Amino acid sequence: MNDDTATGWTVLNDAHEALRTAVRGVAAGDWDRPTPCAGWNVTQVLQHAAGDQLGFAAFITGGPGPSEDPFAPSGTLSASPSAVAEEAMKASADAWATVGKDDQEVAVPVPPGKLTASLGAGACALDAAVHAWDIAVATGQPSPLTPALARELMPVATAIVEPLRAYGAYAAALGAEDGDGDVAALLRYLGRRPDWTA
């Protein structure tokens, strides 16, 4: 998805498409599989990712946020996986569509609570994209995180992730290794092993 008709933000559209692709690719028996998010199975990562998208939407619109704590996902979905994902992404897309490209302060659920519009949309996209990768690699799918998307998200990550590590939202960064491409560099910065397997 390279236009910006859904959200007004190409990077967020691309991240949502990555999450959509990953969720659709999960086989029925794979929702309990372990993921790169230690202690969480695939269902819980989806709940977390959906909750985060709803959180961004709520901060922008003042509407309702997620029904449960995204950092303590129950592992029980309220609807089908695709429905959970699509509802959250639609709320996020609708909210971001109301944000002007030049807005200097947009309320967001990450420190410091307000970001420029482009950085805020990038933060929302980063969350969707990295959890799309988590779901995909946990279930034997190809990575939906493309080098182009990773390149676009890396400056966002370096701008927002450090304060989030203190809350446990991201693990400590891993050192770069020879041969790392854009995707591997982003994953290592976010504390993930690019070669992770269950």
TrEMBL record:
A Pfam family the protein falls into: MDMPI_N
Gene Ontology terms for molecular function: metal ion binding
InterPro entries noted in UniProt: CHP03086 (IPR017520), DinB/YfiT-like (IPR034660), Maleyloyr_isom (IPR017517), MDMPI_metal-binding (IPR024344)
Mycothiol-dependent maleylpyruvate isomerase metal-binding domain segment(s): 13-136
Protein name: Mycothiol-dependent maleylpyruvate isomerase metal-binding domain-containing protein
Organism: Streptosporangium roseum (strain ATCC 12428 / DSM 43021 / JCM 3005 / KCTC 9067 / NCIMB 10171 / NRRL 2505 / NI 9100)
